Structure formats: C-alpha cells, structure tokens
C-alpha cells in the first residue's frame, strides 16, 4: 500500500509499504477514506518529540471502512463505516471504566513506533486497529464523513478542554490559540454555555472563524493581550483560560490573565522541561491547572449525537482537501502556515 512515512526531522516520504494484517484476534483492518494532518503530528515532524523509528507510518485521525476482521471481533462487520479516536482502548480496564480512555492499560497511539514496537498510523491506504470492538465507533447516519472524522481528535479535545475549564453561563473565558483545537474549544465553550470568550491569535483567517464561532478576537499583532484582558475584567482576570498552543509564552500568558482561584485548562502538547511559573506562584494565586491527553473515545459517544442534534458545522475549519499522494506537501504547507492553512484533510 501507499503511505506517508517518517524519515527524519522535517523529512517524510510517500512510498509503498507492507500492507497491515491481522495480528491479534481483536484486530480489524480499515480501508482509509479520510485522514488528516494534526498539530501534534508537527511535534513528530519537527522532532520536538523524538524516538520515532524511521519508516513509521504517520497520522492518527481517520475515517474508513472495515475490510478485514479478527476472529474475536463481535461488534463490527465488513463494510461498516467507522471512525477512530487517536488512541486505542480496551473498554474494560480501570481507566476505560472511569472515562480516561486515553490512558487505557492496553492502549496505543497511532503513528508511534519506537525500537520496533508500537502502532503504525493512518496516513495510508489501510490501517490496523487493535482492540477494534472498543476502539472504533460506527458512523451515524446523516453526518458527513468530514464531520465524523473530526470527532476522533480535535472536536473531542476542544470539548475536553472546555469541560476542564469549568465553563458555565456567566463566566469569562480566554482561549489562547485559534488553530483547529482552539477553534473547537471556542465552539465547545459556547455549547457549554459560555457568554464571554476572548480568543487570542494573530492569523487573520483563524481569527475570522473564531469570531464566527462566537468569540471576541484579541489580535496579538496589534494588542497587548494581557493588558486588554485585565482591562476587560477590571483587573481581576478570566475565570478560566483554555491554552491550546503548547509553548512557554502561551503558558505564561495563561497564568498572567487567569484570575485568582481560576482554572488553566491546557491541552497544548508541551515539550519544555519546566513550567514558566513556580509552585509558589501557583500557590499565591490559588490556581487550578488541568492538563493531559484527551480521552477522545470517551467523548465521541457524546459528541457524535450532539453534532446531529444541534446541527453543528465543523467544516469551516477545513482549509485544504488533498489526495494522500500530496500529503508530504500538505505537511510543508501546514508546518509553514502557507496558503491560509488551518486543517488539512487527505483522501484516498
């Protein structure tokens, strides 16, 4: 099959690799119809996260059709249209039972193979799915494939970020970063009842969608975000800050603009060794800091029906639709923020 593989820092290849096959009786093989390039893929691409074997198939977002089934799979059949979260999960361990499916004791992250062990990704024609019965979700009728695809990572992560922020009617909230997950956090916060949301970014097309989703835009290229937010809150600060960037400057700004007793909800993937603020800083401000990987499988069961019930349109964030064969160029476009790129979908 054809796939996008990792070949070193900022180097990918679109090449022929071995087709995946059933290894465990709980596996299925999915023929990929849609996949996507995620912001967290760039951490691997840029080697901010190191250790990936050369030749690893990239990607962890996909929608497709079941074409092969292991002997122990009972809830799926060939021909089922399915979507996956970005990690596999067993559904029965302690962490799955409490809804923390991202920390399943048997779970794996698609697109991470290190020292020969791990799970290849989905930016390919086919992908192997372990623990398929409890990992995959059948696509509901009446929703587009693109809508369904986006629940497997970015919409779930945005919703998780807003829930961790304790969003409620009457609160004042800040979203730092209007990339795909930041925009989903804005949308989720509005769904959860937020009235006032300030969205901080500097990319015009991203800020335009943030405004469309109901946020007041703070343009970093023209405005001192810290000063502006503190002025808007009479010097108190926001009830919660949703930080989706994952760099030290965003972490510090989150701390600076959250009110005493407020919440920082961070889903940005941080690779720095230290926090920008100290334990005593956090103590002196009485903040709550919530972070971690989104348990996407847990959220998908809630969000897929919600998409249909509320007629939510996630497709506004999709800037590019490219064939898989152009995926390497898609990474370059996304990495360098060219051509007003926001969310890039790859199709087979």
Question: What would you say this structure looks like, in words?
Answer:
This protein has 348 residues and is an alpha/beta fold. The chain contains 12 helices and 17 strands. The chain has helices spanning 39-45, 94-97, 132-135, 145-151, 154-164, 180-191, 204-212, 225-232, 248-257, 279-285, 296-310, 327-335, and strands at residues 2-6, 12-16, 28-37, 62-69, 81-84, 112-114, 117-119, 126-129, 137-138, 172-176, 196-201, 216-219, 238-243, 258-266, 288-291, 318-323, 343-347. Strands 3, 4, 5, 8, 9, 16 and 17 form a 7-stranded mixed beta sheet that branches. The protein has a 6-stranded parallel beta sheet with strand order 12-11-10-13-14-15, sandwiched between helices. A two-stranded antiparallel sheet has the order 1-2. A hairpin with a 2-residue loop joins strand 6 (112-114) and strand 7 (117-119). Helix 5 (154-164) packs across helix 6 (180-191) and helix 5 packs across helix 11. The radius of gyration is 20 Å and the shape is globular. The N and C termini lie close together (11 Å).
Order of helices and strands: EEEHEEHEEEHEHHEHEHEHEHEHEHEHE
Question: What is the radius of gyration computed over CA atoms, rounded to a whole number of angstroms?
Answer: 20 Å
Structural class: alpha/beta
What share of the residues lie within helices? 25-40%
Relative strand content: 25-35%
Overall pLDDT metric:
96
Low-confidence runs of at least 5 consecutive residues: none
Cα-to-Cα separation, first versus last residue: 11 Å
Shape: globular
Give the tally of β-strands: 17
**Main sheet overview:** 7 strands, mixed
Number of helices: 12
């Amino acid at each position: 099959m054809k796939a996008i593989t990792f070949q070193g820092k900022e180097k990918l290849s679109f090449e022929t690799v071995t087709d995946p096959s059933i290894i465990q009786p709980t596996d299925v093989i999915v023929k990929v119809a849609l996949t996507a390039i995620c912001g967290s893929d760039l951490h691997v691409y840029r080697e901010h996260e190191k250790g990936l074997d050369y030749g690893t198939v990239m990607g962890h977002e996909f929608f497709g059709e079941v074409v092969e089934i292991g002997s122990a799979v009972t809830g799926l059949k060939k021909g089922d249209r399915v979507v996956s979260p970005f990690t596999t999960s067993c559904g029965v361990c302690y962490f799955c039972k409490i809804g923390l499916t991202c920390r399943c004791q048997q779970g794996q992250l698609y697109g991470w193979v290190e020292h020969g062990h791990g799970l290849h990704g989905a930016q390919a024609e086919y992908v192997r799915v372990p623990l398929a019965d409890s990992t995959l979700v059948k696509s509901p009728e009446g929703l587009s494939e693109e809508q369904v695809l986006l629940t497997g990572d970015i919409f779930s992560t945005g919703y998780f970020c807003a829930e961790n922020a304790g969003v409620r009617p009457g609160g004042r909230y800040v979203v730092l970063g209007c990339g795909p997950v930041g925009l989903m956090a804005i949308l989720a916060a509005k769904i959860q009842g937020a009235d006032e949301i300030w969205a901080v970014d500097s990319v015009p097309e991203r800020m335009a969608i943030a405004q469309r989703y109901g946020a007041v835009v703070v343009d970093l290229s023209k405005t001192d975000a810290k000063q502006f937010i503190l002025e808007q809150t009479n010097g108190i600060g926001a009830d919660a800050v949703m930080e989706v960037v994952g760099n030290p400057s965003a972490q510090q700004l989150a701390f600076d603009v959250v009110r005493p007793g407020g919440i920082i909800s961070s889903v940005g993937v941080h690779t720095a060794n230290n926090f920008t603020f100290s334990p005593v800083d956090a103590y002196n401000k009485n903040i709550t800091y919530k972070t971690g990987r989104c348990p996407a499988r847990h959220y998908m069961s809630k969000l897929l029906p919600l998409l249909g019930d509320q007629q939510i349109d996630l497709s506004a964030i999709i800037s590019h639709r490219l064939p898989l064969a152009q995926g390497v160029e898609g990474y370059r476009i996304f990495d360098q923020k060219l051509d007003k790129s926001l969310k890039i979908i790859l199709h087979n």
